[in-house]
Amino acid sequence: MSLKTAPTPQTQTTQVSAKRTRKRSLGIDKRPGFLTYGLLIAFFLGGAYPLWWSFVTGSASTGAFAGPLPPIFPGEAFLSNVAEVFSTIDFWAALGNSIAVSGVITISVVGFSTLAGYSFAKLRFRGKQGLLVFVIATLAVPTQLGIIPLFMMMKEFGWTGSIGAIMVPTLVTAFGVFFMRQYLVDVIPDELIEAARVDGASMIKTFWHVGVPAARPAMAILGLFTFMTAWTDYMWPLLVSPQNPTLQVALSQLQSAKYVDHTIVMAGAVMATIPLLLLFVLAGKQLVSGIMAGAVKG
Amino acid sequence: MTSTISPPSGPAQQNGRRDPESPGGRGTGPVTRPRREWRSKLGALDVKASPYLYIAPFFILFALVGLFPLVYTFVVSINDWDLLSGAGEWVGLQNYAIELKDPYFWNSLFNTFSIFMLSAIPQLIAATFIAAILDQNLRGKTFWRMGVLLPYVVTPVAVTLIFSSAFDEKYGLINNLLQMLNLDAIGWKSEVFPSHIAIASMVNWRWTGYNALILLAAMQAVPRDLHESASLDGAGSFRRFFSITLPSIRPTMIFVIITATVGGLQIFTEPKLFNPSSSTLGGPNREYQTTVLYLWDLAFNRGDFGKASAVAWLLFIIIIGVGLINFFISRSIASAGATSPGKTARAARRAANKNIQRSGHSPAAHDSKEHRR
Fold this sequence. Notes:
Chain A has a domain at 90-260 and 276-297: MetI-like (MetI-like fold), CATH 1.10.3720. Chain A has 14 helices and no strands. Chain A has helices spanning 2-5, 12-26, 34-58, 78-88, 91-122, 128-139, 147-157, 163-167, 174-187, 190-198, 203-232, 235-240, 247-258, 262-297. The model of chain A is unreliable at 1-25 (pLDDT under 50). Chain B folds into two domains: 2-77, no CATH class; 94-369, MetI-like (MetI-like fold), CATH 1.10.3720.10. Helices cover 71% and strands 0% of the residues of chain B. The relative contact order of chain B is 0.11. The interface between A and B is large, with 115 and 121 residues. Chain A: InterPro entries: MetI-like, MetI-like_sf. Chain A: It is a multi-pass membrane protein. Chain A: This is Binding-protein-dependent transporters inner membrane component.
């Protein structure tokens, strides 16, 4: 293949200019055509339609379901459906629980992961390699399967029914430690730490004044994803605290109470999706770059 | 040596505190020595202990709530353990033997794998396709990237409620559509294969965009000059996709596959909430009862902790096993497939270098800026 285009010495200059034009015409960086945007719009609609449909259904009065197809535009009954949701489940308490659970888990995971990740990335100590391999190995271990003893423990301590019991199993994650380690290992120059040490900073001060500021972008990403994961978790909160539910558990209770009445269930699904949609509007860019950064690192 | 190098004692000297030894400075002064030694010992302890102190919270908590429960599951599994009466007799591996003969266990495994395959394979193909479309010089990149990620912010519970309603056999959107087209309604919640498709579609809807972004990141890490020289060699965009892009993103694909395996084999929320009117978990005749759902039913509805723990360990072994198989298969595919595309890539790179050398001026500096868009 390369023979075809290999330039002869005489045609050097023409080759260069030819290369330029060809680069444009062969189109590495050419703006894509309508087909591409058409496909993207199709994907976008496919992603958004179920949400829209849930809103349309959630705003319909029960009678609107008589037709062969649900209406395309929202009805007027959304507020009354939402009122029905509020009278069936304690939405605000569940929302509060979800915020508390996800908030505490996020702070704990980010804090401990940064500390451990910094240690793995930048400090010297005996057994570091082995311990790091251990952390990486546990990334693939489905710890979720330990729910039976975990449940027994929570019962033994009398914690069932409290949001504390929901938080406990995910206060640290191996992924968090690995993620922070991968980030910090490149981002902090060793000289910076040495300089701080020579200036007389203790280890913890060095961590606080050198490690944490450098880690901030990764901490934000890790925090965002930890929050999402904690917020969407369903199995463990359902098991350990159905009487004091998180939003996801409350939503599933709404379903089992009202499964014959789709409009109410859909109104509840919409209400429960709003908080994360807000997060998406505010931090969608960070979510995108977080996923893409995690992929390259991981 | 240690007393002068150890950082904590450093500033004390610099601050001009009276130090009789400071010109020679090797710490032999009888007055300052105990104090400095104490400081340096503290400093050394700080240096030695801190790394362990920083990783300790993670390891202690992880051991307590991650590893211990997993190991203790095995202890429970070799006892006749009951939810109400607690630890019973030691029964050895009997629980495992019983479960391995239980058709419901095998049924749950079949369902889990069927749903997993129906979600993993189409999802990977679709995600690669979407990533390739996003990996162009688009206008409004961030907007489109956010667009494909939208379903990810809908929680699995909400996704299941929405899809469960859409797949309703009598009044659901999808059967209504089918009937409008004069097709037969499908028993989405009462037949094995349709229910698996319905559940897999939930997983696919939520995760395809997410995985597309991961693959997109990998595609963007492919050096631009590789594409450029291949295109100089006359390779069209399809040829470049199959000869350059795909081989380059294989490691990321392995990562995506393994993550999808660990998550997919533990699927719970979707089948749990798919049909709230079914009295049996996972469908009237366990059409879509996955293994974790079966485990849940054994443990918390029937109170048989011993057998449920055995199921947990069997699933644990299966997940690790499948993960390893995935890893080795994809690695051997990668190394086997690497010969031809690798050669193309190398040839392309060589050609590119040649061009640079011949043409005298180097486009490399210009090109390298374009590596990442």
